[in-house]
């Protein structure tokens, strides 16, 4: 299929040599150091030609730890990659399906290895083939990590350190980039897919991978020790409330209350710290939105995975090189009010857009949801007030608090505990005002009771004894009152049994 493959033969240049006549002797065999085993993952099949870079840019570090052997590995891979570029038709490669392109690259590389008399074992050759395919079609050294569904976060701190989070614990990996330029090249590949850029002129960038995983890049000169790349991976299979119950993130009764909240169009604010599972929980709650509702999502980088058929996804845009053309979260929320939404879902509230979201919740868009960073329901309310104040609104504190009370029905608090587990620690409803103070009421809370011999925390979700929360009227309207009351009574009965009452 690739016409340029006919360039292989007796007249093919040797490693690092100029073209030579047919009568020239073949190059000396090159010893190939052992390569580390890797897992495989098909890369993104789109824009393959744009990903073919110079040899220096695409070399990754699957080489041995020994410096000399690593150098030999790079030299060998460099020679093979140069020959690959000389022998492949990029325009045709770009039109092929990923798997077909991968097989074609493997065939060509195998021919190069044979014609150049490079000495290596079958397993070494297999690892090198996979290595080069990942560079050409994917994200180089990151591909084996992206393939694993048990990894929640990938954190690259410069070219020589890469950490992952598995099972709630952060661990150092042996993944390395050749140098800072190689790392920046991979960062550019990622952000360019969503029409963004990262360089010295624009050193901070939020982007996403094709599967929806969230990406943040901060580049030099802001990142002193080389670019910092952070990827928040999402599981291929979305978590459900039932799975959260299985993982003890919430009790069965608490999950039923959350289901009712999603069903009865309550305005829900999900609060939590970094990595506490706010977006996952938001995805779980949106699963109970009716399929005939028009839902509009507003996000900095699109990561929500709503399954309803009538969903409009909006995403912010950074300024261009001239500092113009920026579209902020406020702009998106203001515009979506003109799009006849029935529910507005905001990925994360972090600034003056809080005012516009509250306005939307208070003007007929029941069932709207959003997330913010806070460590408790009370702190979430304080942060909302602070965000509105920072937006330049000269409103009295009482007026802002009254707006919050009339807009937010329930705050769901998520937390990442010190053992790495994630729990829903509070389901708290917003009742009203007493004087200048917002009154809240916990419906469910999570108590930490101790820890086991393995250092894992032991805890229990419990009901606070509330049998008819304020949103019971709303549940009655949607014919969910019986389910809500049954869940609360079951939780209260279980609590009484634990206390021996």
TrEMBL record:
<protein>
    <submittedName>
        <fullName>Protein kinase</fullName>
    </submittedName>
</protein>
<keyword id="KW-0418">Kinase</keyword>
<dbReference type="InterPro" id="IPR050921">
    <property type="entry name" value="T4SS_GSP_E_ATPase"/>
</dbReference>
<comment type="similarity">
    <text>Belongs to the GSP E family.</text>
</comment>
<dbReference type="Pfam" id="PF00437">
    <property type="entry name" value="T2SSE"/>
</dbReference>
<dbReference type="InterPro" id="IPR001482">
    <property type="entry name" value="T2SS/T4SS_dom"/>
</dbReference>
<dbReference type="GO" id="GO:0016301">
    <property type="term" value="F:kinase activity"/>
</dbReference>
<keyword id="KW-0808">Transferase</keyword>
<dbReference type="GO" id="GO:0016887">
    <property type="term" value="F:ATP hydrolysis activity"/>
</dbReference>
<feature type="region of interest" description="Disordered">
    <location>
        <begin position="1"/>
        <end position="45"/>
    </location>
</feature>
<feature type="domain" description="Bacterial type II secretion system protein E">
    <location>
        <begin position="139"/>
        <end position="413"/>
    </location>
</feature>
<dbReference type="InterPro" id="IPR027417">
    <property type="entry name" value="P-loop_NTPase"/>
</dbReference>
């Amino acid at each position: 299929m690739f016409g340029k493959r006919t360039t292989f033969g007796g007249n093919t240049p040797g490693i690092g040599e100029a073209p030579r006549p047919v009568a020239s002797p073949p190059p000396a065999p090159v010893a190939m150091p052992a390569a580390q085993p890797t897992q495989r993952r098909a890369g993104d099949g789109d824009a393959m030609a744009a990903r073919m870079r110079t040899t220096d840019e695409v070399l990754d570090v699957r080489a041995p730890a020994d410096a000399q052997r690593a150098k030999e590995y790079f030299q060998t891979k460099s020679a093979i990659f140069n020959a690959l570029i000389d022998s492949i038709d990029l325009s045709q490669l770009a039109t092929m399906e990923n798997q077909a392109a991968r097989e074609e690259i493997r065939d060509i590389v195998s021919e190069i290895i044979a014609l150049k008399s490079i000495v290596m074992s079958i397993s070494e050759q297999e690892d090198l083939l996979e290595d080069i395919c990942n560079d050409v079609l994917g994200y180089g050294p990151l591909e084996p990590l992206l393939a694993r569904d048990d990894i929640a976060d990938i954190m690259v701190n410069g070219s020589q350190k890469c950490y992952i989070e598995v099972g709630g614990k952060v661990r150092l990996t042996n993944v390395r980039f050749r140098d800072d330029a190689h790392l920046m090249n991979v960062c550019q590949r990622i952000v360019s897919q969503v029409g963004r850029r990262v360089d010295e002129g624009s050193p901070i960038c939020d982007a996403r991978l094709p599967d929806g995983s969230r990406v943040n890049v901060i580049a030099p000169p802001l990142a002193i020790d080389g670019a910092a790349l952070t990827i928040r991976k999402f599981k291929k299979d979305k978590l459900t409330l039932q799975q959260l119950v299985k993982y003890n993130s919430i009790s069965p009764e608490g999950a039923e209350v959350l289901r009712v909240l999603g069903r009865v169009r309550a305005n829900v604010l999900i609060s939590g710290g970094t990595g506490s599972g706010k977006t996952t929980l938001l995805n779980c709650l949106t699963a109970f939105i009716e399929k005939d509702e028009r839902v509009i999502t507003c996000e900095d980088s699109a990561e929500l995975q709503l399954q309803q058929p009538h969903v409009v996804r909006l995403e912010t845009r950074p300024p261009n090189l001239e500092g113009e053309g920026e579209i902020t979260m406020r702009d998106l929320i203001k515009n979506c009010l003109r799009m006849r939404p029935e529910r507005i879902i905001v990925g994360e509230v972090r600034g003056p857009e809080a005012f516009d979201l509250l306005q939307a919740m208070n003007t007929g868009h029941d069932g709207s949801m959003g997330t913010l960073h806070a460590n408790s329901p009370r702190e979430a309310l304080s942060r909302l007030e602070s965000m509105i104040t920072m937006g330049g609104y000269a409103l009295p504190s009482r007026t802002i608090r009254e707006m919050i009370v009339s807009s937010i029905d329930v705050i769901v608090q998520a937390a990442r505990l010190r053992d790495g587990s994630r729990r829903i620690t509070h389901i708290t409803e917003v009742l009203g005002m007493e004087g200048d103070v917002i009154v809240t009421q916990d419906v469910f809370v999570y108590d930490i009771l101790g820890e086991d011999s393995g250092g894992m925390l032991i805890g229990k979700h419990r009901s606070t004894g509330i049998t008819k929360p304020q949103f019971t009227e709303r549940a009655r309207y949607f014919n969910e009152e019986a389910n809500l009351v049954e869940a609360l009574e079951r939780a209260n009965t279980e609590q009484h049994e634990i206390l021996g009452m």
